[in-house]
Amino acid sequence: MQKGRDKDIVLEVEDIHKTYKGHEVLRGISFKVKKGETKVIIGPSGTGKSTLLRCINQLTIPDKGRVWLEGEEVTHTKKNINQFRQKMGMVFQDFNLFDHLNALGNVEIGLVKVKRMDKDKARQKAMEELRQVGLENQAYLYPAQLSGGQKQRVSIARALAMDPKVILFDEPTSALDPELIGEVLEVIKNLAIQGMTMVLVTHEMGFARSVANEIIFMEEGKILESGEPQQLFINPKHERTKRFLKKIIELYGE
Question: Residue 167's beta-bridge partner residues?
Fold first, then answer.
């Protein structure tokens, strides 16, 4: 099903609800992401941020609501969901790499298996993406031989290889040692500069402030407040937003 819309809007999330075992995790989430925008979602743990990303790409099926990608409905569709997932990259907290494949193999597997790309062309494309994230020299190393930051950069390269319209990042630095966080954030920052459309869940407030076009603050499964970084950080409307940001800045020193 098509939707009449502003052609600059890549992703539209409309009234998403999700309940687990009687607990309402998401309670009517709606927002739009324009081409080239970076939308950052913040909020306390357990407020449904990761569930929201999983509902967007249909790893979790929402109980109610709709998701549109470039005007085509992702939810309640008869189309193969994998067609949409090719256009919607996902970078997880815990990398989700195949341990039996080297970095190059992890990036090229989707190109060969999903896109049916010629093996040589897939390898060339995979190497290009590893080069973009600064891992060309580690292409033949296996996940066990890579640091956490390198693993996460491989997973970003894997998402980029599919030429997605939008990439969803689910706290991409939360599983990393502090000294490795910077290398991953630098890659994401470069993608923002290049105009990649992204939705990012993170606790890295300084980073969020530097890359986001808009920040969404979620609390108890709802959007409590959203706005440009300067407005949200300097003059939040809600006392709850103010308390959350103060606590996070105290904790992480940003």
Answer: 89, 198
- Number of domains present in the structure of the chain: 1
2, part of any domain: no
Structural domain of 205: 9-252
d(C-alpha 81, C-alpha 114), whole Å: 12
Residue 47, SS3 per DSSP: coil
Establish if 13 belongs to a structural domain.
yes
Domain of residue 21, CATH code: 3.40.50.300
**What do you get for the CA distance between the two ends of the chain, in Å?**
44
Alpha helices in 93-147 (DSSP H): 103-113, 119-132
For residue 1, tell me if it sits in a domain: no
Q: What are the angstrom distances between the C-alpha of 196 and each of 76, 78, 192, 217, 244?
A: 27, 28, 5, 22, 28
Q: How many residues does the chain have?
A: 254
Q: Are β-strands 88-91 and 72-73 bridged in parallel, bridged antiparallel, or unpaired?
A: unpaired
CA separation, residue 54 to residues 40, 117, 160 (Å)? 15, 27, 18
Confidence at 2, pLDDT banded by 50, 70, 90: low
Nearest to 198 by CA among 144, 160, 230, 153: 160
Encode pLDDT of 116-170 as tens digits. Answer: 999 999 999 999 999 999 999 999 999 999 999 999 999 999 999 999 999 999 9
Within a domain: residue 131? Answer: yes
pLDDT tens-digit readout, 175-213: 898 889 999 999 999 999 999 999 999 988 889 989 999
